[in-house]
Amino acid sequence: MNRHITAFVLLLITVMFSSSTSAQFSQYDLKVAFINKFTGYVKWPETPDQIHVTYLGDEEAYWLSIQKLTSIDGPNQNYSVSRADTLESLPFSHILVVDTTFNDRVEEIVEQLENKPTLLITNDFLDNALIGIDLVAHEGRTISFSVNRYNLAFQNLEVDPDIVLLGGSEVDVATLVREMNSQLNVLNAEVEEKNALSLALQQDVATSRALLTEQSTELENLAGSYRQYQQRYTALSAEYEPLREALENAQKELSASRTQLATNNQELDALNAALAERTSANNTLNALIEQNQARLVQQNELLSQQDAALEQSKQTIAVQDETLQSQSSTIKTQSIIVYLATAVALLTGIMVLLAYRTAKQRQRTNEVLHEKNAQLSAMNEKIINTQEQLIQSEKMASLGNLVAGVAHEINTPLGVGITAISHLTHSTKEFAKLIEENKLTKTRMNKFIASIGETGEIVENNLTRAGELVRNFKQVSADQTTDELRCIELKKYIDEVVFNLHFKLKKANHKVTVTSSINECVNTYPGILAQIITNLVMNSVLHGFRDLQNGEVNIVLSKEAGRVVIDYTDNGCGISDNVRKNIFEPFFTTNRNHGGTGLGMHICYNLINQKLNGTIVCAASENGAHFVIDFPAHCQN
Predict the structure, then answer these.
(1) Is 525 left (phi over 0), alpha (psi -120 to 50) or beta?
(2) How is residue 85 annotated by DSSP?
(3) CA Rg, the chain, in Å?
(4) How far apart are CA 570 and CA 551, in angstroms?
């Protein structure tokens, strides 16, 4: 029987491919011959005018053989072919040929073809429960096939029982049915178990709905709190915007002040050079005046000697006159008198000339000295104006540092608050979506409520933090721009000043500790005190801790005999004796190459002496810097 069928197939292939009689047929050509023959034993619900064959596989030789179907022209044997690489790209087909490379996905293919009139032809597939027709290749290029008419009927295909005469075998349907019944019994048991579980779940759902009602009420309360948080956030944002504008303006003014400071430094250097030249010229002029004065003294002594000689000469002449009167004639006496008168006149003329010359020189010297003094006065006035401008620039720079620090600090809690609000908004949308889709569980509900509580706490803490920063900045910045006398808690106020410098301190992890034994308020100038503490701390950061990490500053406040004492120390590199002697001098700095003006400590000295009526001393210290400040506890302007 098999020999007759094999001969028939070879004859069929000879008819199909008569133009290639000299070629050797492969097993794929034999499989395609079977596929062509199957179309005569299978009927589709609607007889197609053209049978569409799709090949799902990677074997090129198999695909080339399937393409030869398009060359067959006969009754009910008009073919079109296509090729697919994935299950997702499968088109509608009357015949789907699946290569062995997709055997592990046949079950997915069967589910995708459910209730579709498609003849599924597999190759060397072992599970007969899933096949339609399975082609099996044997040694010697022999092909057989298995038919599962039960699955074909399920696909709405009618199969002629004589199809097995082509050399195939029919799957034992009874065995398959028994296996399916056994599987159905197992599935029924699972269904009953799941029904019982469903009843329990329904009871849990009823309980959850009651709990959901309570939690919805709590959620509404939380939503009200959330709206309050949003209102507080909006209010703080409104306050933050003017602060940001003030920061930008302060930064612009700081930049302009720094430019003006550099220009003033250049002018000051030029003035200092000119002052040095004028001082040198003035010293030379003073030396010349002293020389002239010495010469004038010598000339006065000479005149005194000449007067004495003249008096002696007069006495001699008198004696001679008496002698001449008795011994000489009148003509000789007159000659002597004429000679003496001539000498006296000549001597007098010389003395008058010398006196006139000395007076002229003194007058010119006085005029030059007066001009120099006028120039020095103008120069001193310009230097004083420059110092005042530098002091104002230093104050603006200090305020700019304060604004920059507060802006940086306030960005952190506001950023955390914005992030928390955004997260809460996103969680609320997801929660509403779960409610709409009826997918809300007790675990998700509790998680959402816990998330709202945590987010609310985070927002409240950070908004409180931002509000505290704004309040501190308002107070300290207002104090630094006005010289108002008021009563303050000294330690609390200095803590606020140090807190506003936190941005500068935390870069190198520096720490400032303030301790106090003063329990009552102190009537003083807060702005001036803030300027002094700011200058001291910034000096420690820039000079004492220049190359150090984890620096420590200790500020100890005490009251002795009606006076406030501020003891300021740090553990920086210290201050040498030479620097300590000149530290309060104007324009004295050891950091000029890095932008130092030398006015910070001079400003502190003037503010303490002139405004607070107190004193500041740079004490000797073996470790770091040490300043002691004292001023009256009830200072007056």
Answers:
(1) beta
(2) S
(3) 57
(4) 7
Task: Count Cβ atoms within 10 A of the Cβ of residue 437 and give its class: 0-12 exposed, 13-18 middle, 19 or more buried.
Answer: exposed
Task: Extract the tokens encoding 180.
Answer: 């399916």
Better-scored residue on pLDDT, 360 or 389: 360
pLDDT tens-place string over residues 571-626? 998 898 888 888 888 777 776 655 566 678 888 898 899 889 999 999 988 889 99
What are the sequence ranges of the domains in the chain?
A: 2-171, 185-434, 482-632
Question: Which fold would CATH assign to domain 482-632?
Answer: Heat Shock Protein 90 (3.30.565)
Question: Which tens digit of pLDDT belongs to each residue from 209-235?
Answer: 888 888 788 778 887 877 787 787 788
Which of the two residues, 200 and 10, has the higher pLDDT score?
Answer: 200
Smallest CA-to-CA distance from 507 within 472, 459, 545, 544 is with 545
Residue 22 scores a pLDDT above 60: no
| 187 in Cβ contact with 193 (< 8 Å) | no
Instruction: Give the distance between the most distant pair of CA atoms in the chain.
Output: 205
Hey, which residues does 168 pair with through a beta bridge? Answer: 145
Q: The domain at 2-171 falls in which architecture?
A: 3-Layer(aba) Sandwich (3.40)
Reported as a single tens digit per residue, the pLDDT across 545-562 is 888 899 999 999 999 888
Place of tokens 């030789």: 61
CA 492, 497, 500: angle at the middle one, nearest 5?
125
pLDDT at 3: 41
Helix (H) or strand (E) holding 618: strand 615-618
Cβ of 358: how many Cβ atoms within 10 Å? 16
Neighbour tally for 4: CB within 10 Å = 10
Q: Which residues are bridge partners to 147 per DSSP?
A: 133, 170
Per-residue pLDDT tens digits for 66-80: 999 888 876 667 899
DSSP for 217-260, please give it. HHHHHHHHHHHHHHHHHHHHHHHHHHHHHHHHHHHHHHHHHHHH
CA geometry: angle at 463 spanning 458 and 465, to 5°? 95
Rounded to 10°, the helix 526-539/490-500 angle is 50
The residue with tokens 């720490």 is 511
Looking at this protein, which amino acid is placed at residue 205?
V
pLDDT at 398: 60
Contacts of 389 (CB under 8 A, 6+ apart): 260, 264
One fold for 2-171 and 482-632: no
> Which spans in 482-525 are helix H?
490-500, 502-505
For 303-307, which contacts have Cβ atoms below 8 Å and span 24 or more sequence positions?
Answer: 303/351, 306/347, 306/351
